[in-house]
Amino acid sequence: MDSAGIGNRILWLTALVLGAFGVIVAVASLVLRRTGRSPRPLLTKYGAWFVIAPVIVLPLVYSRMLFQVVVMLLSLQCIREFSRVTGLWADRGMMRISYLLAAGLYVPVLARWYGLHQAGPLMVIGVLLLVPIFRGHYEHMVQKVSLSILAVLYFGWFLSHLAYMRNLDGGIGYVFLLAMLVCCNDAFAFLWGRWLGRHKLSPRISPNKTVEGAALAAVSVIGVAFLMRGVLPKQSGPGILLLAGGIGVLGVCGDLVISFIKRDLNVKDMGAAIPGHGGLLDRCDSLILAAPVFFHVARAFYEV
Where are the domains of the chain? Predict the structure, then answer.
């Protein structure tokens, strides 16, 4: 199937999912009203998806470069939220350099320059290590440089793989499948964990996550991936299994990475950009670690 056909299928699937989701939210709101409770928190939290989904899906389907710019802005916002909670924000000069480096990582994405994109971390680390030398002082610079490297690479370079995926033949389908599997993995892990969860996965870092929830979510996501394989330009059983299995593992790990950062810093949310959800980083934490692995598996099985 060509990109136009895959794009139309994605639009229909998105409309179908949002429609079903809207019916569920509406019914839940009516139930809350009848029991004397306010539906506002529910509407605030889940209504945000009716804004988030079009902002991502429409550029994904209709404009490669616009979608890549949207992902770049997401990276910059994640860096902003991380810098505010870690204190790096106080050094405005370091922040400007971090923003410039993160935005620079998207230049080879827009230009479809794969080799330069993969060399990005080397250049980022090299530039940031030279900052104290050009500034001529060293106080607290180990901490600042380390935080900047983490911010630019984890939230900039890792997420840039999501944007670069749009450059692949049939990349619209890869990106959509990745986003859907990450969302499904989070939902299944929560539901299975509430129903059958007995053993804590990481009690000190994320007490609500369970081994059973994570394992059953991974199996469920593999099933969803095979059901949605029609959005891919080619259908390889081993490839789909690896793509979905990777999401099942790395989605949970990505969530735990942000959880341990929040625990260490004693904050509940990384920001307040999305009402009822916290920051953008709180919403896309499961995506960040999964994006590079998904990209390389997709490229290995479908492109090379």
Answer: 1-47, 64-167, 168-304
